[in-house]
Structure formats: structure tokens, C-alpha cells
Design brief:
Blueprint (H helix, E strand, L loop, with lengths): L9 E5 L3 H10 L4 E5 L2 H10 L4 E5 L8 H11 L5 E5 L4 H7 L8 E4 L4 H14 L2 H14 L13 H14 L7 H8 L3 H13 L11 H7 L1
Parallel strand pairs: 1-2, 1-3, 3-4, 4-5
Helix pairs in contact: 2-3, 8-9, 9-10
């Protein structure tokens, strides 16, 4: 196999304080970081490439407040978990940020404990977002008593498989073994290739992990 230099998760940091950004850079050096100073810039960045996680400060440049942008960010990227950072939010504001369909998953107080940040980021990436969506769909399937003999009614198989692929491929620097993945998930090689194309196109895996994806997508 050929080693891949980068299969890490991507994090969009919305923060205007250079000192805070420096701390995040040290604490999160195992991730691919994109930093912007305003909520407006964050929306533009998400439109260009969906991150796996957003870290959103409340007091931003140009007089913007992260709390005001939280619903807008979730509206365009509902599956992306958000960690809010603030030393100014009151109890009522914190509760509002953590409630409803367009809420943050976590709120961390400033000054941020970097060990707590690291733990929170890891949980958000593995269990929130896409993982949370898959769990909800699987729960719905169980409630509807959908079993493996009803493939036309199963709607969790593909996102669950892709979520598992993301976690597995990010844990290694090797290129994916298509045949091995097909055996592990009991699907065809063509299905695995399409999954890889989806994940790369969505920005959840780097192109370098499977450079043939564009050519094979064009041939379909």
C-alpha cells in the first residue's frame, strides 16, 4: 500500500483572537484547521467546503456574535457538530444555544481547558454529526421493524457504512484496500468505490487517499 500524508478530520475555527488561535493550533495539531474571524466568513467557508466540526467563538470580529450565526451555520450544515466557546454567555443564553434543531452540541467556557477541548472534539467527531444521524435513523428502522430482508426500506446502510469508513480510514495512513472493504461490509467493490467518491466529493476524505476517484466517476 502507498502511505497517505493526510486523512485527518477538518475543523473550521471561527475566532478573531490571534492568541486563542495559537492555543487551538497547538491543542488540535492532529487535525486540518481552517480559521476565520467572523460568522460571515464562516458561512462562506462552509459553502466552499463542509468541515467535520465547527468551533465557534461568541465574540467575533466586526461586532458579530457567534450566537447570532449559530442557526445560520446549522441551517447550511445541519450534520456538522458545533462547539461554542464563550466567557460572556449568561445561563439563559447557554440554554438557548443548546436547545432546538439548530443548536450547538457543546459550550466550553473561556479560558478553555485544552485537555477538555481535545476530549470534546474527539467525542463530537466520532459520536455527533454523521454518527448521531446514523444512530437516529437506525432507531427509526428499529421502530418500524425493518429487517435485512427489506433492502428497499433500509435507509441507514449507506450512511452507516460511510461513517465507519471515515473513522477507519482516518485512523491509518494507508490507501484503502477496496476488496478488503467490500468483504468487511459485504458489498461490491463498485459500492465501496462510490462511497469513496461520495466522501471525497463532500470533503470528508482527502483526494490523495484515492486519486482514481475522478476518472472512475467520469466513466460511470
Amino acid at each position: 500500500m502507498t502511505a497517505i500524508e493526510e486523512t485527518m478530520a477538518s475543523i473550521l475555527i471561527v475566532e478573531d483572537d490571534p492568541k486563542q488561535l495559537k492555543l487551538y493550533g497547538k491543542a488540535l495539531r492532529g487535525y486540518s484547521l481552517t480559521c476565520v474571524a467572523t460568522g460571515s466568513a464562516a458561512l462562506a467557508a462552509i459553502a466552499e467546503a463542509r468541515p467535520d466540526l465547527v468551533i465557534l467563538d461568541n465574540i467575533l470580529d466586526a461586532g458579530e456574535k457567534g450566537l447570532d450565526f449559530l442557526p445560520k451555520l446549522k441551517a447550511v450544515a445541519a450534520h456538522v457538530p458545533v462547539i461554542m466557546i464563550s466567557g460572556t454567555l449568561q445561563i439563559r443564553e447557554k440554554l438557548a444555544a443548546l436547545q432546538g434543531p439548530r443548536s450547538a452540541h457543546y459550550i466550553l467556557e473561556k479560558p478553555v481547558d485544552l485537555d477538555e477541548l481535545d476530549r470534546t472534539v474527539e467525542i463530537a467527531l466520532t459520536e455527533c454529526g454523521l454518527g448521531e444521524t446514523v444512530a437516529a435513523l437506525q432507531s427509526l428502522e428499529r421502530a418500524e421493524k425493518i429487517d435485512s430482508s427489506e433492502p428497499d426500506r433500509r435507509f441507514t446502510e449507506r450512511p452507516a457504512r460511510q461513517h465507519a469508513m471515515i473513522k477507519g480510514l482516518r485512523a491509518t495512513k494507508d490507501r484503502p484496500n477496496i476488496s478488503e472493504l467490500a468483504r468487511d461490509f459485504n458489498v461490491s467493490r463498485k459500492t465501496i468505490i462510490r462511497d469513496l467518491q461520495d466522501l471525497i466529493q463532500r470533503g470528508q476524505l482527502p483526494e490523495e487517499i484515492y486519486p482514481e476517484w475522478r476518472q472512475e466517476a467520469a466513466e460511470e
